[in-house]
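Changelog entry

Holo records now carry the ligand SMILES as an explicit input line rather than a separate metadata file. Below, a converted record for flavin mononucleotide, shown in the new format.
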Amino acid sequence: MQIDPKALDAASRYKLMIGGIVPRPIALVSTIGPGPEGVVNIAPFSFFAGVGSDPMMLLLCPANNGSGGEKDTLRNAKPVSEGGTGEFVVHICPDRLARKMAACAEPLAYGQSEAELAGLTLTASAVVKPMRVVESPLAFECVTRQVIRTNPGVPAGGNIVLGEVVSVYADEGLINERYHVDPAMLDAIGRMGGLEYCRTRDRFELPMGRAALEGTAER
Ligand SMILES: Cc1cc2nc3c(=O)[nH]c(=O)nc-3n(C[C@H](O)[C@H](O)[C@H](O)COP(=O)(O)O)c2cc1C
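Structure line, unchanged by the conversion:
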């Protein structure tokens, strides 16, 4: 079967993407509204990826909301020149944080904090203004370098928020002296299609290239 995305309705296109591009890592993102009264906003995003390590860049994709407007995360994280604060913090979500993370997807009015709703503990970040979520063992503090809008003003249109990591927080013991992250301690979850998630407790190793074809593993 071959599918022409243009022949599908928006909901079917979305289902093909979230059910097919799996598992997706989850960025629990904190931002702060512009101005002195800026309220902390927290929301999860699974259209999220690393971009490069020199400089250390990552991206996340807050789609336009149902009326074509910007979600609060984009509104806050976009560069200062576009009316935002130009900063955000990405937190990796361990299994024990799953419920609170999902609660943060509640569409609250702009200026109301999901942290309070979900019962998350916030503390000052090292470099950027948006607060860090204490319950996450690994957090990337970012400065927004660019926002790319793929269909501005249209519901479900995409936006890429490109951020440079300016500081990394890791719980004691999560990272060894060679900067290997302990996957068991991180215990990250991923998002699947629909309302499903997966754990990262079933892992295996393979060498890269030709060597991957050698050996006796049953896969
Ligand atoms: C696990 C998970 C992943 C999500 N991933 C995305 C995503 O990649 N892009 C998106 O626009 N919304 C995503 N959402 C929905 C947003 O979190 C939701 O729209 C949220 O209310 C946006 O908050 P904000 O308006 O405060 O930015 C996701 C929700 C969950 C629970």
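Spot-checked after migration. The two ends are 27 Å apart (CA to CA). The pocket of flavin mononucleotide is lined by residues 26, 41, 43-47, 61-63, 71-73, 102, 105, 107, 191 (CB under 6 Å).
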